[in-house]
Amino acid sequence: METISKQYKSKKETDQEKYERIEAMIEEYREKEGSLIQILHMAQEIYGYLPVELQQFIARKLDKPLSEVYGVTTFYSFLSTKPRGEYTIRVCMGTACYVRGGKKIIERLKEVLDIDVGETTADGKFTLEVTRCIGACGLAPAITINDRVYKQVNPDKLKDILKTYY
Amino acid sequence: MVNLTINNKKICAAEEMTILEAAKQNNILIPHFCSMEGIHQIGSCRICVVEVEGEKTLQASCKIRVKEGMVVYTNTEKVKKARKLLYELMLSDHPKDCLNCTRNQNCEFQRLGEIIQVSESRFEGEKSKPDRDDSSPSIVRDTAKCILCRRCVTVCNDVQEIGVLNVQKRGFHSFVGPAAGLPLNSVNCTYCGQCINVCPVGALQEKDSTQMVWNALYDRNKRVIVQTAPSVRVSLGEEFGYEPGTVVTGKMVTALRDIGFNDVFDTSFGADLTVLEESHELLKRIKNSFLAKQAALPMITSCSPGWIKYFEHVFPERLEHLSTCKSPHMMLGALIKTYYADKIKVNPKDIFVVSVMPCTAKKFEITRPELKNNGFPNVDAVLTTRELARMIKEAGIDFRNLEEGEFDTPLGISAGAGNLFGAAGGVAEAVLRTVYRTVTGRELQPGMVHIRSIKGQEHIKALEVKIENTVEEYRFIDGETLKVAAASGMKGMKAFMEQLEDGTSPYHFIEVMGCPGGCINGGGQPRPSNEYVRKKRMEAVHSIDRGKALRGSHENPAIAKLYEEFLAEPLGKKSGELLHTKYTKRGIYNELI
Ligand code: SF4
Ligand code: SF4
Ligand code: SF4
After folding, report:
1. Label partner for B110 (CA 20 to 30 A): which of A24, B137, B284, B465?
2. What is the domain range of residue B286?
């Protein structure tokens, strides 16, 4: 799935071009088993997120009720109906991280970024999420920012970490 | 057949049966909740768990099929404890507003509590968000009461194939509703109300109109006129303990007078009128297509407002196929405020028209801005059969001991044909009677209609009548075969109507009723509305038709008089103003885009 979506990935397209690519992708995948989840995933890769209009477009192409498509979108946490930031911060909520300050990190991040979990900052820079154990238990608490993992995070150092992304 | 034991009783059951079904057949009742026989067995509530020898965990009996040699226990300590726990957990997230809930005493959740013997809930949990959606004129969603059985999801998606309702989000936050948390009045809901009929609790209900009607009745300056649909008289009795299919016309009329309605009219009269207008509209279209080769055929019926809304959403570019006839109760409403108002010398502004309907979509229909004449809405309030029963109870009327009353004249006289509107296929049959009579001058005899089912589409019936020896005016169709189709329920209609798009439809006339089985199974009918009950109501409708001396709408003397005194002729100027309407283009998923 990774490689397929890469193939559809490119920067700086107009909305119309994105929709065209999504349409082509739907045509290719519509008959495959469990295609709805795959299609939504790839559409998100192309468009960045899944606004209702886009879900409506997909529902119509697949001849499915919008409520079913929306049900799937809101069931899976990797699908998002809101615009996502350039960087996604995921705070590990595995047991180890949780007991060693994960909760505090979330509180601090909410404060610093002025958003709730699941939201994106006004400047479109960061999206804040929680995640299940990422396997860095030995070095808890951990967070990831896009593909990069930060271990033994000190809540007081969060601001410094974020600064490196501006 | 397989042999198995349930609670040490040896029984025999068909292979494809579930444990739950096999038990039921042998008078062993396993408490169950979310399942609906034949349509919905997803095992989500797990109330129906049983112990199956050899299985480590308890099994949902609505999902597991019987097997040879199976040993099942339905009442062990383990089973009872589990059931109780499941029930208590459901209860912990429920508002328990029983005393002011319209489902009180008629609630499957309460009934289940009685069977399981739980009187209090040990767990008081955080409640999922209470969220009441009363945006639509027809249906109220009270998600706080929803127990997530998903019956409505199955009905809306698989039985009606609309797909407005689905499970949104996950876990504790999951709820059943339209996409994106949208209110019902902004999506493509048809307001058919089929979801209400299956909801076991008070989470889906009709929008209440009883208060509004009481207020009109309290107002001394108002003349409050009521009309009842043909399918209400065959179902209302169920609310008062009668067997399904009992015809209670006389008691219903008396109850309405006792409640305080000034005049009690019969929507079947409106239906007879619809038949005349619709028959002539059909003949006009057929004539145009034969002589000028341009007419929107097939013509499709317009008496089911749920179906109309569906059509407006799905085929906004094909609205010309819909008959322009208003639905029967709207026709009657329009006449009450003109023809009848003149007769009784009452200003139409002081008249309040109430329609008792089997239908929730009719509540929406009366809000359509085009259904007004001289600035007055044709109908002011719609009550469902269930709401009327509530009002009768509220008024302290002892329904079972009422005398038999009769509808008022002249708008209470009906032929058999008008009464047929209550059951699927009825409009088609009624229109055929009048068309045949108009074209040939002779009455249609039962043997002349050739009925068959369409292969692969068993819910659609095709009716054919050979037209021979016509009167002079209709010579152009002498020897032709009139082709009619009758369908009910929205399922399969999208594919069926696609024939309109490519012009391959072989029919002249298509009847579609939005609810499976027609109005006798409308979204406003008493619960339960299962297969047995539907069959009984259907038989009752046909027995009423057979019992009428006048079968065809064109034989109704009150209708003849109405044309003579007031309307002049079908499709005439007055009819055009009062009895016909137009439609709205809507979006496929949304109300307008
Ligand atoms: S739905 Fe049933 S249990 Fe719930 S408040 Fe209403 S009557 Fe009571
Ligand atoms: S009223 Fe009909 S269309 Fe609307 S949600 Fe209920 S079942 Fe679906
Ligand atoms: S609204 Fe009623 S039918 Fe639908 S899931 Fe909830 S309880 Fe079940």
Report:
1. B137
2. 281-324+415-521+548-579
